[in-house]
Amino acid sequence: MTKLYLDHIAEAMGVKVWQIENCISLFGEGATIPFISRYRKERTGALDEAQVAEVRQWYLRFEELEKRKQTVLNSIEEQGKLTDALRAQIESLIDPQTLEDIYLPYRPKRRTRASVAKEKGLEPLAEMIFNIKCDDPLSLSRNYLGEQVPSQEEALAGANDIMAEWISEMQPVRADLRDLYSKWGRIVSKLSKGKEESDEASKYRNYFDFSEPLNRIPSHRLLAILRASSEEIVGVKVEVKSDYAIERISRRVYQGKRRPSPAVREVLDAAIEDSYKRLLHPSIENESISAAKEKADLDSIRVFGENLRQLLLAPPVGEKRTLAIDPGFRTGCKVVCLDAQGALLHNDTIFPHPPNNEKIASMKKISHLVEAYKIEVIAIGNGTAGRETEAFIKKIALPQGVRVYSVSEDGASVYSASDIAREEFPDYDVTVRGAVSIGRRLMDPLAELVKIDPKSIGVGQYQHDVNQTLLKERLDTVVESCVNNVGVNLNTASKHLLRYVSGIGPALAGNIIEYRDANGAFGSRRDLLNVRRLGEKAFEQCAGFMRIPGADNPLDNSAVHPERYELVEQMASDLGVSLTDLISNEELSSTIDISKYISDEVGEPTLNDIVKELAKPGRDPRSIIKVFEFSSEIRSIEDVKVGMILPCIVTNITNFGAFVDIGIKQNGLIHVSQISDKRVNDPSEVLKLHQQLHAQVVSVDLERQRIGLSLRGM
């Protein structure tokens, strides 16, 4: 990568050029973001995971820009119009939009009014007028009359078309207008004719006659308007004061030229106005909307990514024998029993609710299953009949210590009908698969949710309206980050979890499972090198994130990378203790003098990480799960009254507030203005997914099935 790009990235990120250079070099060596941020801190100057990911984004962006530059240079050179000055200008660019502006006059075009006028021989006339080399355009136009141009008016009209196109292709003009539209443009939406009474239009009624500054409109509102536009409910445009726009264009057109005669000014002004209204405004308007949408997309994707991270890192109950229930009324509640590793041991169905009302039989069956399979926790899906099933289960005299949890069902139906579920449970129907998924989500949310398309989990805003490529890249990065942050048990992880481990991917994940099935449990990390097609490079990238509980070498169940085992063994030797004695002994590890072990390859950041890991090897960064109960006063939205203070759980965070589960079908909304007594700009800075709260009801709209809540004064 050239110095031009390296300097720009370093300045934009506020870091040193060598940090960027080394980071990009590591990408070139096949290193992943989790590996670089965890195990190559000396080379990157301890850039964190977010910074390494940002470097990669810049790197990919400038790689694409460099390819585009070469395409543009080749195209202009083929036309014989590439000068040394133009080449230098293009090569010095870092902005893709400026590159396209410069290329615009040279870009191959479809037939336009200007190209037709040029075919008629009117380009010299346009040049004379545009460069103010004449005083009387009407008289000059006589020289261009002929069979194709029968009148002076047509000659001037053709010259106008040519000049209008030239003006629309001036890079400074386009840059000025972009600036004007970005600062002063207003996005305006109006209800489309014939849509007034349609049911689909009602949800967009806030935008039937709407206007807001383009640079201030929140991302969720812009995406809503654009969705309404795509459904042809409203028309959308960007408005600016045309007088201001034309004045800016005029300044650029007349800049550096002699004072025009009144006749020339009249013709040039007409060309400027035509260029703006016919060519520039539609183009810049579309660009402005696209730029605003791109910004909204990134904002929405960021929110989705943060929500997904919190969901994936939700507290696990751990390896406990679990009874899971997928609730239902008419079709009954599907019940499954899982062992501590999540394997299906038994499935059954109970009918405790109307219309069957087999409460006594259902209670006996649950009591028997809890005793027979030594159940430690019960997971109940929070969908239809969830509250009723939870209340029913709590009436049963369960053994002491058995806890009941409500588990989100978002995406469970997607999983149960997926190829992954069919592969895992080919002999069971979707109801059994769904119940198993609910139980496993309680045991380890991360391990189970990686099997589901993140877009089906329900923690985003307008995720179907944003750039799908960017969304997938972001969500995949978040999943990879979470998996590697937690670490993976090499002997129990599914291939769907393994595929997100640094350096692995789907093919190697399958090979690891194949090896494990054929040879039994892995005894050490080094055994990974026996896996088909898993070489030294893949081992380097993945080994530190794999965990082997009970391995002969206790470091194999820690985040210490195998390349540093020898160093840790030296630390233990210097302290006069065994490796086993050193690991998990926080007091002993705190006495290590890391300055003794600093070398060219290993610096203070890595040594601090090692000492921290030795104190608590394999520590799960996720918090401890808590039991939660909804209010027993409400069963439906009709029971919700203004002034009630209700326990609730945050289920989704957006830019405009947070949705919370209050224990009924309808989620409540805590608007951003109701989150705190202080001003809140970003709800995610105050609230977290799955956070347990008490909120006051401030509004209930039965017609629209909406509930408003507030945390102010709480």
Name its key features.
Tex N-terminal region-like, 15 strands, 5 domains, 714 residues, Arc Repressor Mutant, subunit A, alpha/beta, Nucleotidyltransferase, domain 5, 12% strand
Number of strand elements: 15
Radius of gyration: 33 Å
Taking strands numbered 1, 2, ... along the chain, how are they ordered across the largest sheet?
A: 6-5-4-7-8
Q: Which CATH class of the largest domain is shown?
A: Mainly Alpha
Q: Report, as a whole number of angstroms, the end-to-end distance.
A: 54 Å
Tell me the number of helical segments per DSSP (H or I, 4 or more residues long).
Answer: 29
Under the CATH scheme, which architecture of the largest domain would be assigned? Orthogonal Bundle
SSE blueprint and pairings:
Layout: H1 3-13, H2 17-28, H3 33-39, H4 41-44, H5 49-78, H6 84-91, H7 96-103, H8 113-119, H9 123-130, H10 137-140, H11 152-168, H12 171-184, E1 186-191, E2 209-213, H13 219-230, E3 234-239, H14 242-254, H15 262-312, E4 322-326, E5 333-338, E6 344-350, H16 359-372, E7 377-381, H17 386-393, E8 403-407, H18 412-416, H19 419-424, H20 430-443, H21 445-449, H22 468-486, E9 488-489, H23 495-498, H24 505-519, H25 536-542, E10 546-547, H26 565-575, H27 579-582, H28 586-589, H29 604-615, E11 645-654, E12 657-661, E13 668-671, E14 692-701, E15 706-710
Parallel strand pairs: 4-7, 7-8, 9-10, 13-15
Antiparallel strand pairs: 1-2, 1-3, 4-5, 5-6, 11-12, 11-14, 12-13, 14-15
